[in-house]
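Weekly puzzle thread! Below is a chain. First person to post its structure in token form gets bragging rights.
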Amino acid sequence: MAHHHHAPGHDDEHRSENAHAHDHEHLDWAELAPLLESQAELFTPLYEHALAWLAKEVTDPGLIVDAGSGPGVISGLFAETFPGARIVAVDGSEPLLERARARAERLGAGDRFATLTGDMPGVLAELDYPADLLWASRSIHHLGDQGAALTACVERLAPGGTLAVMEGGLPSRFLPRDIGFGRPGLQARIDAVEEDRFSRMREELPGSVAQAEDWPALLTAAGLHHTRSRTFLLDLPAPVPDRARAYVVESLTRTRDLLGEYLEADDCATLDRLVDPDDPASVHHRPDVFVLAAHTVHSGVRPV
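Winning reply:
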């Protein structure tokens, strides 16, 4: 089982926001890898701001662990942000880690980059050294007992080390509330379905524990102090570049494929038009397509 981040309408830039990895057991990560990589690259400005924020408090780390790294886009950004650090990308999917290694080589960081294949959080026990910074981007919520997972992450931190988790934020938006056909508010209704599916996904996870999603409190309970949170934006206004439009097309196509059975018939019909490249009103052609996303990072420090 691979644990990564959400991409479009599982914003998992590392996988799809809409899949919320509910179906991750059946996904072909080698096939999805190029898509996940391109989506993560689109979100690079957001990640860069988050890493710059972390870098103000995490100074000169020796080892950085990207837990649930996917194809390694964020791992590469860590290598660039912290040129003196060794980076370990951890993921359950070897095909995605192959891409992470290739990216590190392209960046000239191959000599200080390593990968570790296995399921979170148990695989972290295989790390050779404690981490000065452990990053988990939208990977903790795929684990049944999030509190226990955070505790396992903290155990792999060096004294004074930082754990940073990207969880929460706001649902992404791609279109105006009223797009000129169908009922206004389509994305809000999709969000409601997504929330229900996400809750079911959490309930069905092995060892699932219901917990209030107060991430600073969860980090404190796991033994950290100096907790803080900040939200980072990706704001790509209309008219968007081609790669952003491709992201929206893929996101809404996956929404239609994965959530169609849960949506009202009129909303399915609207989605059908939005993803039809032959329809002038589709997101392939609309001038009003944008990408607005907000992801929140929560961090805490292990006491010395």
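Puzzle host: Confirmed. Bonus trivia for everyone else. The beta strands are 63-67, 86-91, 113-117, 131-137, 157-173, 225-236, 291-301.
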